[in-house]
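Chapter summary example.
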Amino acid sequence: MSSMASIKNSFRLVILAGVLFAFNAVAQEAGRVTRSSGKATITSSANQVKPLANGDTINSGDTITTEEDSQVLIRLKDNSTMAIRPKSKIIIAEFKFDKQPTDTIKTNVVAGTLRAVSGQIGKGQPDNVKYEANTATIGIRGTDIELAIIPEGAKDRAGVYNYVHAGEVQMALNTGEKMIITKELTGFTPDKLLPGESRLQVLKDRPAFLVSGGFDALINQLTAPRLPMR
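The structure predicted for these 230 residues follows.
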């Protein structure tokens, strides 16, 4: 093969590699911002930050950060719904929705509070939907949950809370401990253990941080089953 042919082949391989890289770099669209209030930002997987606005596209790998008195409502493409509460940081770590058994949603709660209502993936492939908060991983079963990381100095004790509005979840720690949490109960793992205290607990009292607002009424409208026309 001549040196000129080798150069041409190498050039083609470079172009092909660039095309494949660009294709893989395009994150899948996960959903859109349905409603927002106050100041919030979107940080892409490439670390590009922009102010969040109604109608914005949310992609796999995006981080949504809300300030005090700010909330964001997101509708994902599988009809999942997420309400991101004030002073929160949530990562849509992975989203894949091709109407296949491999469809996946993985969400990380870095700070603050997230209410999440399952959509098509949660109903069809519930094992492929995971929420992570510190050392806790939550697996769902057709669920409406509120997941929060409460810091020291708040009304509630510091730790990770997982309140179940509807359905049930499995809350698991990286220690291997697991527990099923059912409707209107709260899974809790404290930041600091007291003597003789379990690392994973179920609380019967409704946590003080659960304060409903206008976005909750909208969630109920979006997720309520539609009655057939007569």
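To summarize the output: The longest strand covers residues 136-150.
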